[in-house]
């Protein structure tokens, strides 16, 4: 997606969001599949997985739209006014 969006650093979002997305995937899909094969009747499994897939796509959209953390380092190493006030006290 970063290539299509024309981002300067195409791998920045991947580096920032891959691990949290993978963890959420495991948290979502492992119990979903366990329920699928233990409690859901075979004739309803396709419907159940379709609903799970719809929920998962919405989770992915939410993750995609979260903003990346912004570096809080001031430009040119100029301390902010809050930092100056903290050093004066």
Automatic annotation (TrEMBL):
Query: A Pfam family this protein belongs to?
Result: Mpv17_PMP22
Checking InterPro entries in the record gives: Mpv17_PMP22 (IPR007248)
What topology does the record note for this protein and the membrane? Multi-pass membrane protein
Annotated compartments: Membrane
Query: Mind naming one GO cellular-component term on file for this protein?
Result: membrane
Q: Which residues cross the membrane?
A: 46-63
**Keywords on this record?**
Membrane, Transmembrane, Transmembrane helix
Which top-level group of life is the source organism from?
Answer: Eukaryota
Q: Which family does it belong to?
A: Belongs to the peroxisomal membrane protein PXMP2/4 family.
Protein name, UniProt field: Mpv17-like protein isoform X4
């Amino acid at each position: 997606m970063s290539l299509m969006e024309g981002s300067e650093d195409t791998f920045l979002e991947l580096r920032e969001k891959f691990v949290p997305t993978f963890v959420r995937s495991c948290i979502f899909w492992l119990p979903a599949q366990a329920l699928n094969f233990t409690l859901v009747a075979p004739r309803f499994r396709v419907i159940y997985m379709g609903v799970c897939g719809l929920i998962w796509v919405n989770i992915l959209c939410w993750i995609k739209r979260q903003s990346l953390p912004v570096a809080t380092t001031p430009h040119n190493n100029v301390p902010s006014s809050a930092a100056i006030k903290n050093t004066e006290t």
